[in-house]
Amino acid sequence: MNNRTRKTFIFLVCFLIVGIAIFGSVIGSQIANAATTSPSHPHAASSANGVTTNASTFKVTSIDMTVTPSTTSLWTCGSYIQVVYNAVFHVDSGPNGGTIVFSYTVNNGRSQTTEKLTILPGQRLSNFTFTWQGSLPYDHTYPEPGGVLVTSPNTLHSQMVMPAGKCR
């Protein structure tokens, strides 16, 4: 490899490294911003009716629920859509943090899926999203209310949320 080719190669490698570093930092900041951004027109509800079952200072104090889209009236019946439910857990993490054990539902509690979230010391919020997707039935039976039920470190039920309206 001659001197000119070597210089060109080094220049390209440096250019790529700088480009990746800048591009990665832009993507990272967009991901961080997306995690804290709420939908433009969500239905929202908040729950703060917890019963503490654990004497430690770590506890879930409330849960905010949102759903996107906020209405299904813009779609014709039979259309395939995705509904995104978002739960924001407000926590008192205490000095050691802990694990939130909860279940979520997209069908008004007829079935549930169990999940866990790790909370670090000093953390105040934790976000969890889950989805329902399918065709909007003509009898308007889906999408149904979605929400979460915390079982540890304390017991807390979120409000159930669902898009308003009916498909046309």
Please sum up the structure shown.
The protein has one helix and eight strands; from the N terminus they run H-E-E-E-E-E-E-E-E. The protein has 168 residues and is an alpha+beta fold. 21% of the residues are buried.
Properties at a glance:
single chain, 168 residues, alpha+beta, 4-stranded antiparallel sheet
Task: Characterize the structure shown.
This protein is of the alpha+beta class and 168 residues long. Helices cover 20% and strands 37% of the residues. Strand 7 and strand 8 form a beta hairpin. It is flat, with a radius of gyration of 22 Å. The relative contact order is 0.22. About 16% of the residues have low confidence.
**Beta-sheet strand percentage?**
35-45%
Structural class call reads: alpha+beta
Assign an overall shape. flat
The helix content is 10-25%
Distance between the termini: 68 Å
Sequence-ordered SSE layout with sheet pairings:
Elements: H1 3-36, E1 43-47, E2 59-68, E3 80-92, E4 98-105, E5 113-119, E6 125-135, E7 147-152, E8 156-157
Antiparallel strand pairs: 1-2, 2-3, 3-6, 4-5, 4-7, 7-8
